[in-house]
What we know:
It is built from four helices and seven strands; from the N terminus they run ααβαβαβββββ. The chain is an alpha+beta fold. The model is unreliable at 16-29 and 43-48 (pLDDT under 50).
Amino acid sequence: MLPAMLAALSPSVLQGRASRVMLPVRMLLSEINDPENYDPEKAGLSTLDSSSRPEGSHSTGYRFMPLSTVSKESSPVLICIAGLYPGLSGDDLMRPTPLPFAPPGQWNYHVLSGETCTTGFVALSGSDLLDRHPDTVAVVCSSSSLGLEFPDGNEHEVLALIDRSDIAVVDAAYFDPKTFYALADENNQLHIRWIEAVPAGWRVLGRLLFAQMPFVKRPGAGSGFAEQGDEFEF
């Protein structure tokens, strides 16, 4: 097929295409062979701009740094911890000052002061959901307090990510009985749950974005078949 297609092209067409391919090669060779641009004593991958590189830096002396690029997706985040649940108060949930999230593909530097994240912080993978809700804090919960069960049958710590900027905090008309909220009762004790209607004296403090669960391996899960393992994905 290919010989027949080439035969169908006129010699002038082939000659024109070949000249266009060879032109950049000739230009590159002329630059390399130019004594003003090429110095065989200069080490490096590129001989055209190595003079601008600091001595001992990447791509000099035929040495190249191991490199890693941050993903273009959401960057990892530092979430302030409001405290432990149950036993947390409404004031405890509102106290932390959230740390700024880094733009996608970047990172931030934080110098923590005594007024920021007084009960600590936790590093989590970034997500578009967290990017859109920067006023989010973490509550360290016992799994049983949220009604969560794990395959090993044991109690584990779970992070409840609470968005304190949810519109239902300031406008009760947006309260959704199908949504899980962080609520303070008449005694200012915190509750993380869904509820049909907010009782008198209770306040909505935030919405549960999601509960971050740790990876817990099911006892005896190793069967030798990948599709029966805890880490199998479709």
